[in-house]
Amino acid sequence: MIAVLAGGTGAAKFVRGLLEVVPPETLTLIGNTGDDVELWGLHISPDLDTLMYQLAGLLNEERGWGIQGDTFTCLTAIGRYGEPTWFQLGDRDLATHLVRTKWLRQGSSLTEVTAMLCARLGVRARLLPMTDDPVRTHIRTPSGALAFQEFFVRERWMPEVVAIEYRGSERARPAPGVLEAIGAAHGILIAPSNPITSIGPILSIPGVREALAERRDRVLAISPIIGTEAVSGPAGKLMRACGYDVSPLGVARYYAGVAGRILIDEQDADWREAIERVDVRAFTAPLRMTDRAAAIRLARMAVACLHSET
Ligand code: FO1
Prior knowledge:
Elements: E1 2-6, H1 9-18, E2 27-31, E3 37-39, E4 42-44, H2 46-55, H3 73-80, H4 91-105, H5 110-120, E5 126-129, E6 136-141, E7 144-147, H6 148-154, E8 163-167, H7 178-184, E9 187-190, H8 195-203, H9 208-214, E10 219-222, E11 225-226, E12 229-230, H10 235-241, H11 248-255, E13 261-265, H12 272-277, E14 281-285, H13 292-307
Parallel strand pairs: 1-2, 1-9, 2-5, 9-10, 10-13, 13-14
Antiparallel strand pairs: 3-4, 6-7, 6-8, 11-12
This protein binds ligand FO1.
Residues 7-9, 35, 46-47, 49-50, 65-66, 87-89, 93, 149, 152-153, 198 line the site of ligand FO1.
C-alpha cells in the first residue's frame, strides 16, 4: 500500500504515472481541501476533483483541471446576469458540484461524498479529503487577506504575499482513514505539489504531522522545485514568503520533520550533500513530467526510492 499526499495539477500529473506502475487498489490519495471554495451555493473541491478526474481518466490534461471536452454554457449565462465568472466552472464539472452539494446537505461527510462520486466514476484507488472539517487557506497581502482561489485564479498570484493562514486547521480532525493510511502504508509519497498551499494545509491538521514523523524514513517528498524555480505556479513565491530558500534544499528543510527522503532533479545533484546535512536522504531523477512516459519514469523512480534501503 502506498499513501500519497496530494494537491491538484502537479499531483495529478504524477498520479497519472503512478497508475501505470502500481495497481490502483494499492493507492490511497490524501487530497488538500484548503483550496475549497463556495460559489453559487456549491461546494467546490478543486484538488479532490482534479485527482478524481485523473483517476477516472476524465481530466483535461492540457489545463490540468476540469473535465476534457467540457463546455462553459452555464458560465456564459451566469456572466450575462453580470455575475463574476473568473472561476471557470465547466458544465459537466458543474454536475459534480451540484451532486456533491446535494449529498453534503443531506448529511453525508465530504469523505463519504468523495467515495460515492469516485465509485460512480469507476475509480479504483482510494481518494480521501485531508479532513471533513472546514479548513481554508488564506493568503495575507499588504491590502488584506485573500481566499486561495481569489489569490490564485482571480488575482493570478500577483499580489505580494505577507503570510499564509490555514484557517480552521487548529479545530480540524483528520478525515476517517487518513491516519490509518499513513500508519499502514508501506511508503508515503509527497507529490510534487506546492509545499505551502497544497501540502501545508494537510500537515496543518492536528495529528497528521505526528503520524508522518513516526514513519519519517518511509516518507519520500518529490521536489516541485528544480534549480531555483518552481516547475509551475507560485510555489517559489510562497516558499520565499514563508522564509524558505527556493531550492531543493529549501524543500528538504520544509519537509525535514516529516520526510526522511527526497527526490530531486538530476541537474540538482550538487545539492545532495547539503540536503543530507539536514538529515534527509536525497535521490536524483529527471523530474519534469513533459509527457506520459516521463511521468511513468518518475513514478517508477519514486517507488524504487521508497523501497531503497541505502
Ligand atoms: N484554475 C484556473 O487557473 N482558472 C480557473 O478558472 C479554474 C477553475 C477551476 C474549476 C474547477 C476546478 O476543479 C479547478 C479549477 N481551477 C482553475 C484549478 C484550481 O484553481 C487550482 O488547480 C487548484 O486549486 C490549485 O491546486
